[in-house]
Amino acid sequence: MTRSAAIVSAGVVLISGCSMRVPADTVVSQGAAPGAQTTGTTGAPGTTTAATDTTGAIAPAPGAAAPGASDTAAGAAGAGAGAGTATTAGQGGGSGGAGSGKPAASAGQGATAGGTGGDIAISGPNSQGVTDTEVKVGVLAPISGAAGFLGQNEVDGINGYFGMLNAKGGVKGRTFRTVVVDTAFDPANEATGARRLVEQEKVFALMGVLGDSPAPYVTSKGIPNVVVGITPPAYSSKYPTTYPVTLNTVESVVSMANYFMKVKKAPIKTVGILYDTQNMAIKPWLDFMVKAWEVHGVKVVSTDAFNLSDANCDQIVTKMRNLKIDFWQAGQSLGWPICLAAAARQGYKPPFGIGGPYSADAKFVGGAGQGSNDVYAQTVGVQIAINTGQPYPQAKNNRAPEVDNYVSSMKTYGPNSSDMSSLENIWTQTSWAMAKLVAEAVSKQSQAITWKGVNQYIQSLTNWESGLVQPVSFKPECKTGGKTWIFQWKRQPDGSLVQSDWKPYGGVANYPDSLANQILPGAGKCLTGKMADAGLQ
User: How much of the chain exceeds pLDDT 70, in percent?
Assistant: First the structure.
């Protein structure tokens, strides 16, 4: 049983001409003008296919409830910003229930829950996007542009899990179907795309990358929004229905500094920090990244903004050389491979190297050529090529219990991302785990399937284990990213990159609450969420 999908455009970004490889049953929007005829999906076994009329409007799928007043658009201004009429595989509208425009209740309110992670019983109609046969999920992915390969991995990771689940009959007799919006890694497109998926495509839940720009909107509507995460806002208690599943940039700097100073015991005295202000806007949290090193007695001698659009990093590399830094904490910019390449051209490498969190993707870091060798990388996933399924200290054998299902499902349902570099990268693994979280939350709804119920379930989870990536917590007041582990990229004679064995680097990074409290007094185990809140004040 296969999963049906559709891909639409957001803002001025169009799918046509991009390098995204899509499944045979996928429909691609070519940015048709309103009123133009669009194309419906090819019916996939076990899925409901929409009929498309000659005006470009999409009729509800058989069995779908008509959209109710409480599920309709929150205003035309945010709903129709796409370049053309979206082509989707079914409307799947619902009525009433949690799609009321009100924020969802936190865990424990208005429902019966069997303790943490227990079943949720909410009576009444299902929320929009849920029919008797399917659950419709919106996906925000950077499919076009310089980071398009990341969107490929994200979509394929989601396809991998949902495809495997659908082949077994889905959840509660319902299969999962996705509609994908190309964001081109632009925050404005992500915000516009979120509105479009909710208000036009009538999806039940959202999945995306950063989650920052859609966060105010999804919070106001009470929509479950499962994201990769990475940047701090997704971890804030201000956005209780946004659920980050991977590492947090700022917390990863804390882990990197702790690794070098407490595990490796490197005599580092000076550090430079690179940060993004566009695609990954993290400047409000720069002081915490600086403090992550300063609490160890290390002096941060330079902090430099660098973005993918800057294109040339030679001047910053020369600056680092002249400052004679010991380590370059550079991996907090989407453009940092440009800096790695510039350092290689200049024959420069600090005594203790270069590293950072935006690093767990061989294709991404490999763009630096010779500059990618020996880069210190961080991930929350597991190794595949060697030490398959490790490190996963939650299991007695240190092997992720879902790793075999992950690899098998990717080969069957996400074959475009089943090569070794894609299987090992953080995007594919995290996206697979995101899909598992959504499906698990739906499975825990004992009566109606609603936004409110799904939010209550997810918000009750502490140290949730996907069986693939490191555990995360979703309580609004204490969201945590997965703890990272460190490795180095080793460049091979053919130019490819392979991960070093994780074991010499100490495994999953853990640091004491006392260290967290030095960075932000009183934060303790909730450091990630507390830093997020502080930066948004």
Answer: 78
User: Does residue 132 sit within a domain?
Assistant: yes
If asked whether residues 112 and 240 sit together in one domain, one would say: yes
Distance CA 137, CA 4 (A): 11
Query: CB-side exposure of 86: number of CA atoms within 13 Å?
Result: 31
Q: Are residues 188 and 324 in the same domain?
A: no
Tell me which of 266 and 77 has the higher pLDDT: 266
Question: Which tokens go with 162?
Answer: 């949902």
Q: Is 446 exposed, middle or buried (0-12, 13-18, 19+ CB in 10 A)?
A: middle
Q: Is residue 406 part of a domain?
A: no
C-beta separation of 439 from 466 below 8 A: no
Domain coverage including residue 494: 249-385+483-536
4-49: pLDDT as tens digits = 445 454 432 322 223 334 342 333 332 222 222 222 222 233 332 2
Report pLDDT digits (tens) over 255-299: 999 999 999 999 999 999 999 999 889 999 999 999 999 999 999
Is 55 inside any structural domain? no
Q: What is the CATH number of the domain that holds 174?
A: 3.40.50.2300
pTM for this one? 0.82
Domain membership flag for residue 393 = no
Instruction: Count Cβ atoms within 10 A of the Cβ of residue 123 and give its class: 0-12 exposed, 13-18 middle, 19 or more buried.
Output: exposed
How many CB atoms are closer than 10 A to CB 517? Answer: 14
